[in-house]
Amino acid sequence: MLEDYIRNKQKEKDILLMAHVVMGYPSIEETFELVQTIVEAGVDLMELQIPFSEPIADGPVILQANQAALAGGVRVDDCFRLARKITDAFDIPFLFMTYYNVVFKRGEERFFAETRGAGICGAIVPDIPPEEGESFMAAATANNIDPIFILAPTSSSERINYLARFGRGFFYCVARKGITGAKTDFSSELDEFLARCREATQLPLALGFGVSSKEDVQFLRGKVEIAVVGSQALRLLNTNGTRAVGDFFGKLR
Amino acid sequence: MDKTGYYGIFGGAFIPEILSTTLEQLQLGFQEAKEDPAFWSTYQSLMSTYSCRPTPLTHAENLSRHFGGPQIYLKREDLNHTGAHKLNNVMGQGLLVQRMGKTRVIAETGAGQHGVATATMAAKFGYSCTIYMGEVDVARQRPNVFWMEQLGATVVPVRDGARILKDAINEALRDWSTNMDTTHYVLGTACGPHPYPEMVSYFQSIIGTEVREQILRQSGRAPTRVYACVGGGSNALGVFSGFLDDAEVELVGVEAGGQGLETHKHAARLASEHGSVGVAQGYKTYFLQDDDGQMLETHSVAAGLDYIGVSPILSAYHEEGRIRFEAATDEEVLEATRLVMRKEGIIPALESAHALAGAFREAPEMNADGVVLINLSGRGDKDIFTIADALGDTAWQSFITTKAEEYRA
């Protein structure tokens, strides 16, 4: 399970890295090569995003990759096949990231059965709060998929405590207000927020939204178990190509 | 947060965690306002002194005679300030923003009507204002962009996605996720996460309350049928709210049939077989989407109806069978527009002309002692470019050509 994997990895590394790719961007074949490059650069976990036409939690960089993938004709079936190929080839945990309509349209039970069939171990779906997600969570856990919930600095401690009851694997903490891909000014407010998260849960914490440099990762050492790097890698992919993304991850820690 | 804001299986609040506290505060602020008797009277007084409420109910005698069927009445939301029912919702939310102590408002807009209404409200209340508008819509609705900017708003063209209304909503949600401390999102229709569907239909219920009394007084009876166009659904919910409890009053929502349902170039989520239940933009309802849940492109001659989803409240009434849904094609809509201009001296918005087209299709078959009520949700001046093109008016074309040459000189 994800939590055990993270605990074990922590014995070797003081901070883990989670990468993010949009499946089908720039193409299904290139996604596979990109994943290979990133895994070889030593990341510890990876999000595979199933593209959606209305990705409200994502900023421009990831949004455009979603659109381009869909415009290229990528279907959810293609994503499941690609995921199977990836999990067969590489030995780190992979999670799906997508939006709830993709799950809902396929049917929650079927979606998670196929997710397990593809060798995926967790799911990050930012627009399904626990209040709406009773059957979603049941279908995920019945198939041994960890539903990863998001904790936000804008939420009250009461709300964070409530969310903490539902998470499995780890929690995904957002460093700041806003969407993916903008710059984050990591501050003392972050310490206060992370302290509230620690109080609410024993599970490992991942931190995302704006982690884009070695300095950022250095700053997060000792604060969280996992640093999530998404938009910055995608930006590099767009400007400098796959190899540059590998170099970037290789030098992050 | 409880699992609230459901209408049958529709509605809810499917939102990123970052917005949950903000929506909870909005819900609380709205509930408090609703329970404060002074709030509604402040709202009514604002609408009667700043806009033209109560808007009149017009007996369309010539049209009635033309069809030889029931007596036709038009609720004149086109006579609101800024030219449509949109202002009802916007001014209500403006008062709410005042109560919540925020200083900035943002909004999405398709045709530009809601954007103009929001910019107007922001000017009146002294809020700073940003309007998100799909790049495609910016290009085809320049006059509204001009007015929004003159009213002091910043108009941001949205270049992602299909660059239309739905993409403007996504972009407004992203802005809100970043600036919720100072900013209120003035959603323009009865869609989106709870409490928006409830809140927007609450403010629009002013239409139904007024018209119920007006039609009883003027025609001496409750209407046989009530027609309204349906984009997101706010004007329809507004007018229908006056008659939901009268089982004998038939309620008809008219969606955009575009180039015909069989062409798939339409925006009929409920009246066609192409819509299916999904979750996007924060709520569960019928969407025009593919098997994977990806949203499809929609089409309508009326930009304000050109949208993938529909109010969850309307989806619930659709399932219950309380409201019947029909679609009118672009062609029928232009025909209805022409007829109302000639017969009644009223220029309807192309959106509102869908309700007219739906009613005109059925009126000849109806009993002559019946009464038909049509919500004329907005006026058509804004559509001058579209209507002139559709009518192929050559004098207009040469005017535009001459004007363009003047600018080029």
Describe this structure in words.
The complex is a heterodimer of chains A (253) and B (409). Chain A has one domain (2-250): Alpha-Beta Barrel (TIM Barrel). Chain A is 48% helix and 14% strand. Chain A contains twelve helices and nine strands. Chain A has helices at residues 2-10, 28-40, 60-71, 76-89, 100-106, 108-117, 134-142, 157-164, 188-200, 214-220, 231-240, 242-250; strands at 16-22, 45-49, 94-97, 122-124, 146-148, 150-151, 171-174, 205-208, 226-229. In chain A, helix 2 (28-40) links the parallel strand 1 and strand 2 (45-49). Chain A is globular and about 45 Å long. The mean pLDDT of chain A is 95. Chain B has 409 residues and is an alpha/beta fold. Chain B has two domains: 6-48 and 85-196, Rossmann fold; 52-83 and 205-389, Rossmann fold. Chain B contains 15 helices and 14 strands. The longest helix of chain B is centred in the middle third of the chain and has 24 residues, at 196-219. The termini of chain B are far apart. The interface between A and B is large, with 41 and 35 residues.
